[in-house]
Input
Amino acid sequence: MRTRFAVAALALVITVDHVSAQQADSTPTRTAIRAGRLIDGRGGPPISNAIILIDGDRITAVGPGLAVPANARVIDLSRFTVLPGFIDAHTHVTSQPRDYYEDIFRKSPIDVAITAHVYAKRTLEAGFTTIRDVGSAEFIDIALRNAINRGDIPGPRIQAATLTVGSTGGHGDLSGFSPYLKFGTFSGVADGVDEIRKLVRFEVKNGADVIKMIASAGVLSEEESVGAPQYSQEEMNAVVEEAAMWGRKVAAHAHGAEAIKRAIKAGVASVEHASLIDDEGIRLAKERGTYLVMDIYNDDYIMAEYKRLGFPQKILDKEARVGRLQRESFRRAVQAGVKLAFGTDAGVYPHGWNGKQFAKEVEFGLTPMQAIQTATVNAADLLGWSDKVGSVQPGRFADLVAVSGDPLADIHELERVSFVMKGGVVYKQK
Ligand SMILES: [Zn+2]
Output
């Protein structure tokens, strides 16, 4: 019985894959794109009238004046600027807030799972062909990633963190309610070295590509502080050491100066938010080559909308304290030359709005080309995927976006993506 069932299930999977593959891509394997201007992600001046040759899901050649093979499908983007597909290194793609208490008490993980694909599609159609998703309940991010990779549903490439790793009473715990209130869900709470190691192992076992550590207090949770450390140095070291043993990098959520420094000393790949980073933290990040992933757009949305979404005043007060300071910290990090990768925290504000952060990055100190690089080569480097994504070069995935205007003259063009290709398949063209 067991064998027959397995065979039947396998046949079903093959059928489904076959249909979805045909729907997604009825294209010849060879494609040539005529790009009016190409910004390849590597920082050089735009290339006029570039040809991009694609075989299957990969780029094979790039340059002006390349011969177009006779049997190739030709996509004419000669009136557009073509760029590498964007990378958002800090999303929560499985959900977004509608109502604070309703989201906590009236929704089950199944409600979350059933709508996650909608947000993945919106993210892809905004031009974000790769995301690093840094925190999701119940391994929904893993199921979503796998369904996208199988071709069942459209969405970006995903590096998934699964449950956050944090302390009792911390930003990853649920605080502020009755101590008798318990949810029968998987817990991302771990205290002390042994529990931390076990939780990291449990996450890797269940598909985590990257580990998300809660190094400090946070804004969108009800603990008192916004930035106090929530792990000792020893605990943070354990997270990084255990993750490294399984070949995983660590992204550390940290707003406060002390927590940021502990996380950098522990050896994390990136500090998320970094809102209240001090001069020593900036110096340490530069010295260690630690990326800062600073979500400097979403404060606009939170301050405008979260009261309407029923968030407690305590949380709004915390956001009011850190939002402006974080943008000033970003400017200081730019001036110091710290490595920056693009990360928006999409999922605390609407998915598909990821591109709005480019303009904030320019407002607070980056050139338009540098802002583009935070979401292309820099983010690819942070993810350890420089050989796959983040630039338009032979050997990379054919992940491309196009905008009608010149983003170097008006960075807001990146909020209006007209064309999206991922792995040689066109997902948006208008
Ligand atoms: Zn986040």
